[in-house]
Backbone:
């Protein structure tokens, strides 16, 4: 019962730590299917959101639902439908790989040995090894294998590739994108690495100071941001008057503007402000997200 | 069954073009330079995704665009293939080129001082080769 069409749905969700709002009346609805990336500056509320969604933290106000269930009333069966992988890949270091695997197998009724083998095959992990002896990359792979083998409908990953070397990172991404167990679930993935997001994500969610700042396909977000270079004889217009301004820089006497949601009229604006020449170009996802997160208060309220 | 043609393309993250657009551009260039010929089979969606370490849906999107534009065609249950080049000229452009060809022919015939009746008879015979081909 209480089924919704969303894997994650928050309404006016607030989480307050003392006087600081980590989540500020957040409304977020994530549809089921494939890979969603959540990005935001440090302190944007990503980890708090995950903790509330998984029922580790109570909200201060508002509601949070995951797979149609109230986050605060998740049963063990509900939890079995959700896989969670955190950046530390926290597993008991004193246990052997085989013992951890046996424990998880008993705990999850939908245990899928084939999915486990498919993922662990990417790593040189032996059953008799102690978890504490595994490298960070091996621990990440082992953790993902365990999580996918529980047969989750929703996989939540909090910066899973942080600190992995290039080989381990690639193996991790391959398991995430091509293993049959991962293909069957919705993946919510939080990362600061745009290179990875560009390869992996179909939906980009940007959190800013505990609020939803943007959600769309990554390329649609890219298309909102453009880079203009103007040859201004003088100081240029006051930043507060520049529409959609994300960033302005003066390099070798030219003014570089990174702006949001501006069309050809922005060129006219620059010419009216005294520009002798004006050029514009599209930007990469990395640049677009960077500019968006780095902007000051000159930000129009996004839908 | 035809074998998959290797698709030697590169994608770059950090580019202003989305990855799916980079694939579209890459495949079009391979076809334009004849590195891919009509009838060549493309890698599967999953195969190309693995080759490039990207999301399979990104490849699917690029392939859909290339198919819609007529560069690729799908054969039921077999996969995607490079399509035969289609008539890409407009009717007026086609007429213009035909006029050009006729005018060039007439000028050559005039220079040869060849009797028009015999020129016409020989042209007729030459064109029968074309009509036999298409029949």
Residues:
């Amino acid at each position: 019962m209480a089924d919704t069409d969303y894997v994650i749905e928050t309404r006016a969700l607030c989480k307050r730590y003392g006087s600081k709002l980590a989540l500020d009346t957040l409304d977020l609805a994530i549809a089921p299917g494939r890979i969603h990336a959540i990005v935001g500056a440090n302190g944007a509320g990503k980890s708090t959101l995950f903790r509330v969604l998984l029922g580790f933290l109570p909200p201060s106000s508002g509601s949070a639902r995951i797979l149609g269930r109230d986050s605060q009333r998740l049963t063990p069966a509900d939890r079995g439908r959700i896989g969670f992988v955190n950046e530390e890949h926290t597993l008991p270091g004193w246990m052997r790989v085989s013992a951890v695997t046996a424990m998880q197998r008993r705990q999850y009724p939908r245990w899928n040995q084939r999915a486990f083998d498919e993922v662990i095959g990417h790593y040189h992990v032996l059953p008799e090894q102690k978890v504490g002896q595994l490298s960070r990359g091996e621990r990440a792979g082992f953790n993902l294998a365990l999580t996918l083998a529980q047969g989750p409908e929703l996989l939540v990953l909090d910066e899973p590739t942080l600190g992995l070397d290039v080989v381990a990172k690639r193996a991790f991404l391959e398991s995430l994108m091509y293993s049959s167990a991962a293909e069957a679930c919705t993946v919510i993935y939080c990362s600061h690495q745009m290179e990875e997001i560009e390869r992996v994500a179909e939906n980009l969610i940007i959190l800013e100071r505990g609020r939803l700042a943007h959600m769309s396909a990554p390329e649609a977000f890219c298309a909102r941001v453009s880079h203009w270079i103007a040859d201004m004889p003088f100081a240029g217009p006051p930043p507060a008057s520049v529409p959609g301004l994300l960033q302005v820089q003066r390099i070798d006497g030219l003014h570089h503007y990174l702006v949001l949601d501006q069309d050809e009229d922005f060129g006219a604006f620059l010419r009216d402000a005294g520009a002798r020449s004006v050029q514009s170009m599209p930007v990469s996802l990395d640049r677009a997200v960077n500019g968006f997160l780095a902007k000051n208060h000159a930000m129009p309220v996004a839908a | 069954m035809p074998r998959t043609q290797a698709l030697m393309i590169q994608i770059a993250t950090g580019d202003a073009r989305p990855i799916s657009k980079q694939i579209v551009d890459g495949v079009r260039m391979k076809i334009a330079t004849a590195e891919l010929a009509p009838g060549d089979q493309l890698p599967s969606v999953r195969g190309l995704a693995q080759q490039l370490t990207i999301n399979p849906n990104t490849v699917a999107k690029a392939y859909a665009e290339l198919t819609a534009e007529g560069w690729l065609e799908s054969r039921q249950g077999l996969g995607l293939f490079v399509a035969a080049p289609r008539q890409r000229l407009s009717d007026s452009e086609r007429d213009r080129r035909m006029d050009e060809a006729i005018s060039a022919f007439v000028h050559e015939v005039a220079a040869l001082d060849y009797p028009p009746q015999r020129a016409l008879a020989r042209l007729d015979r030459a064109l029968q080769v074309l009509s036999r081909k298409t029949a």
